[in-house]
Design goal:
Keywords: Carbohydrate metabolism, Hydrolase
Catalytic activity: alpha-D-glucosamine 6-phosphate + H2O = beta-D-fructose 6-phosphate + NH4(+)
Structural class: alpha/beta
Strand order of the largest sheet: 1-10-9-6-2-3-5
Strand content: 15-25%
Radius of gyration: 17 Å
Order of helices and strands: EHEHEEHEHEEHEHEHE
CATH topology: Rossmann fold
GO molecular function: glucosamine-6-phosphate deaminase activity; identical protein binding
Enzyme class: hydrolase
Domain Glucosamine/galactosamine-6-phosphate isomerase: 11-228
Largest sheet: 7 strands, parallel
Number of helices: 7
CATH class: Alpha Beta
Helix content: 25-40%
CATH architecture: 3-Layer(aba) Sandwich
Bound molecules: fructose -6-phosphate
Length: 241
């Protein structure tokens, strides 16, 4: 595991954007696994700027998202689809057939999980971007999730709904369930880049670096992957040596 301590959020975003840019440069038909949330916004902006000022084409790139809320229509401003459309699909000039995200409104959610997992297997993810929750969740895999779980329906912990309430009118409006790639799905990616910013993430980053693998801290599953780069700012990295 490589650990890069960035000086601040901006530096973390720049480093992560450059890694993804290099991957696209090396292979224009690369498959990116992507995340939503507050942490990757700076990285997506930086990568959008790099792409805007470069001859590099994005028409062969494919993106696969980690998760989606259940019960929000894609047009809802808080759906992860809407987030991706604003932060990634539009600025990177991606067409619908390049963008994959679980369908949180599927009539049969179990089938949707199987379909999404089969797609991950069919295409393969070259590099997966991850954020991390304060409690160590990756994707929406909360503490206690099995490390071999595949794409699944999960119930969000009250603390996760509270953390994400900043995007909604109130905590009650945050969906209670989501479809998420499982930890087993995430570990299939050839390379993983995890970004974390701010003091609230310091304990989770500490767990990744210093704890044994434990389902109490889903992030520790990444210890079993051979190609992980962790990019954290000083605040998120303050507990690691
Ligand atoms: C998002 C996701 C989550 C977030 C995590 C951190 O697709 O799967 O694991 O990465 O909740 O969220 P932020 O970045 O908002 O602190």
């Amino acid at each position: 595991m490589k650990i890069n301590i960035a000086s601040d959020y901006h530096d973390m975003s720049r480093q992560a954007a450059e890694r993804f840019y290099e991957k696209l440069q090396a292979d224009p038909s690369v498959h990116f696994g992507l995340a939503t949330g507050g942490t990757p916004i700076g990285m997506y902006r930086h990568l959008s700027e790099l792409l805007a000022s470069s001859p590099l084409k994005t028409d062969a790139l494919k993106t696969f998202n980690l998760d989606e809320y259940i019960g929000l229509p894609p047009s809802d401003p808080n759906s992860f689809y809407s987030f991706m459309k604003e932060q990634v699909y539009k600025p990177w000039n991606l067409q619908a057939d390049q963008c994959f995200i679980p369908d949180g409104n599927a009539a049969d959610l179990e089938k949707e999980c199987e379909r999404y997992e089969a797609m991950i297997d069919q295409y393969g993810i070259d590099v997966q971007l991850l954020g991390v929750g304060k409690n160590g969740h990756i994707g929406f895999n909360e503490p206690g999730t099995r490390f071999d779980a595949l794409t699944q329906v999960v119930e969000l912990k009250p603390s996760t709904r509270k953390a994400n309430a900043r995007f909604f009118p109130s905590t009650d409006d945050v969906p209670t369930h989501a479809v998420t790639m499982g930890i087993g799905s995430i570990l299939k990616a050839k390379e993983i880049v995890l970004i974390a910013s701010g003091e609230a993430k310091a304990e989770a980053v500490y767990a990744l670096v210093h704890r044994e693998q434990t389902e109490d801290w889903p992030i520790t599953a990444l210890k079993q992957h051979r190609n992980v780069t962790v990019i954290v700012d000083e605040a998120a990295g303050r507990l690691i040596d």
